[in-house]
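seq:
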Amino acid sequence: MIGVGDQAPDFTLPSHDGRTVRLSELLAEGPVVVYFYPADFTPLCTAQACMVRDQHDRLRASGYRVVAISPQSVASHSRFADKHNLPFALLADTDKSVIRAYGVSGPFGLFTRRATFLIDTDGTVRDRVVGDLSVGKHAGLIGRALG
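struct:
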């Protein structure tokens, strides 16, 4: 599992809006919040996405880019983003290669653990919350990023 002080694995994934997103390109623009979630349209995942949406303007004003990753398809992500007016990229990791690289696979690789990583421009993980079901703990991590 990727820990604080480790280099975040680079990735390239398709986004809900048809773009291809590469972590290293985002890091060239500023620090990045990468969060992993189990599934579109579930109650906790929706709450987490809406919490990030509600903080998005403040995150952008602080220089952060935000991406969310789960194993659902681009089409599912597009519907989820549209329904909840999500202003950040939802990335489709359908083969779970990035999920595995970050060490956030659930038991037997069947699910994705909820995880949030703050990644500095040099690719170093500054802080993280992994496996905690409480959306509040993930919100707290984002709050720390905002100072």
